[in-house]
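During the no-cost extension, the postdoctoral fellow (Dr. R.K.) reprocessed legacy sequence entries with the updated structure-token encoder. One reprocessed record is reproduced below for audit purposes.
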Amino acid sequence: MKIKNFIAVVFGALIFSCSTETIQEEKETGEKEEPAVATCTWRSVSAGAHHSIGIQSDGSLWAWGNNFDGRLGDGTEIQRDRPVQIETGNEWSSVAAGYHHSLAIKNDGSLWTWGRNYYGQLGDGTTTNKLKPSRIGADNDWAVIDAGEDHSLAIKKDGTLWAWGSNIYGRLGDGTTTDQLEPIQIGVSNNWAAISAGNWTSAAIKKDGSLWVWGSNYNGILGDGTMYNRTSPTQIGVDNNWISIRVAKFHSLALRYDGTLWTWGMNYESTLGDGSTIEKNAPMQIGKDNNWKEISAGLAHSLAVKDDGSLWAWGMNYSGQLGNGSQNDSKTVIQIGTENDWLVLNTGELHTLALKKDKTLWVWGNNGSKQLGLGPVETTLPPSPPRLLECE
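Re-encoded structure tokens follow.
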């Protein structure tokens, strides 16, 4: 089956504070003006495959979209077309949305998980789904989290790396393919700085700037120059200048300290943005620009922000996931709109959440599970530029 058909079947972790100023001035005619739209700002957002989660500026947690197996964490399995608050506290610090499950860290460093738990990806020692956030262990030193399709990665404050859940293809990195129902430390290094959990692949960057990968190497997604799976972290080259990494289902992209952009893996419809359809099993620089700042990878597309705040995209655009208002794929990197105030990106399989510098949240792409949070609109929206997610 061709990848485009496959993707058609497939679609078949910023602050949310609401400040509302209602203006109800009398007009000369005696009519009242409509209330002003509420302005929402966000600290952290994360796009899963078919759901979205985010944290308000007051530290409260919100979620919307597909809720099968309780991935939203509101105690139900009811799909939500608008953000709903999860729990009642305002002590949430960071979030990560996976394919079927979600992770979060509170201000005190405690780790919480919910959603599907078929392979132990929640890390609570069971395979029982959880409809609400459940604390994992008693440790208060969790610092960084990311959620893949059926596995989870984390870094503690001491720089150690931890993983749990499904271990098919060795995606946990412990040298085996055995699932783990609780967090286990990966290796003995204590200098890990960044992580990315893909569908079947994992990647991380150490504090020295070295890049490490493990798991499935389908389409050369690991970037080690081979097609062999790896069950433990394997360094990519000898360079120590990597600063950011994102692995998706079929491709990877990364940034170096010098601001250059690099991609590798599957290249159908130029997922890699080099204008070709030839897959690459080692990092390849895209263009010559050295002012890239933020990156995010979807199912078969990618987005990035430059230092000047401009937004760029490339790859598959079946659901309007590039954000340019069309469904035309792009084999090269193209600018999206003319705004230069984009700050942070987080891309699910076919939808994107993005923050502008004013911390407002903008959404675009597939809305089949209401993951855009725009309310009771048509499930299949016409492709459009980024839309502001307003408060109610």
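Residues 92 and 130 are 18 Å apart (CA to CA). The first strand starts at residue 17 and ends at 19. The remaining legacy entries will be reprocessed before the final report is submitted.
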